[in-house]
What does this fold into?
Amino acid sequence: MSKFDVLSRRLAILLDESPIMQKRSSARRYERMNPTEKARLAAERGDLLYQRLQNCNLCPRDCQANRLEGQTGYCGAGEEMVVYTAFLHHGEEPGISGEGGSGTIFFSACNLKCVYCQNHRFSHSLEGNRVTNKDLAGMMLRLQEKGAENINLVTPTHFLPQIIGALSIALQHGLTLPLVYNTSGYEKEETIEMLDGIVDVYLADMKYVSPSVAERYSNAPDYPSVNQKSLQSMYKRKQTIWEGELLKEGTIVRHLVLPGHVDESIEVLTWINENIPRSIISLMFQYQPYFKAHLYPEINRRVNEAEYSRIRDFLEGLDLEGWVQELSPEEELAGVHFKSSLEGLF
Ligand code: SF4
It folds into this structure.
């Protein structure tokens, strides 16, 4: 699983339980919205989002597919929700996994489909378990019973109407955990607006800043502009609130470093530093040439030590807080070992 180093002195101090931690933790406490009110809000938003499945425009692909009548768009998803696996994840960022693990739910299919995707087995297909809103609500509640620190929705965008409907049911039956929205960052601003008052933590990728790179690896030349707007939208909606070592509210920006793309990574970090400096950075070095990466010679290898040092040194010079992943041995990397299973969650 992933290993993370604490990046900044501020967070290092915070994890050492110093007075600064107490000050930061008590600056503003995490206030849970009344569950009945939140369930009502989720039901309303779920209904509004559901209507968008008729001419699907949930994400920037704007396919206009009628997913209620069996049509599919770029992501391949229909009306029925598909979950590949769900479990207590101890390999997410420390502020998300905590002691109990993050109650992580991996949805099948994806609206981005990167050529190097480590989860391509289910993100590029609908392999997995067909579930109803009620099933998903039950899974959220089981994860809570098992000790999850939060509910972590991985690649949720294309199933958002159903997920928010399920959340409403779960809230009515006792769900109290914070909601983590774990996204590729290829999101419409208006979709993020619909999540106001519902999502507690955004865990969003910033993959690229160059349209040509986004086009080559993710078939999405508009990714940089769309991604930057959506990150700004998330950022302005969320203050950073810690309870001890757990992040209860805020925006984490993940960046996966690609081999041969040090300058791209430096531009990503520069943009974050200039535009959303109070977000929490998670710099990842777990890249391996999965899936179709062998067809792209420049990314058909792992990140090397020299690239790792250059980016890490650059990041240390910025005033950002967060985590940096170590260059882990292959067998410790997350993602590819997942098996489809909902065992114990029904
Ligand atoms: S969610 Fe899927 S069908 Fe809808 S716009 Fe995005 S890619 Fe197209």
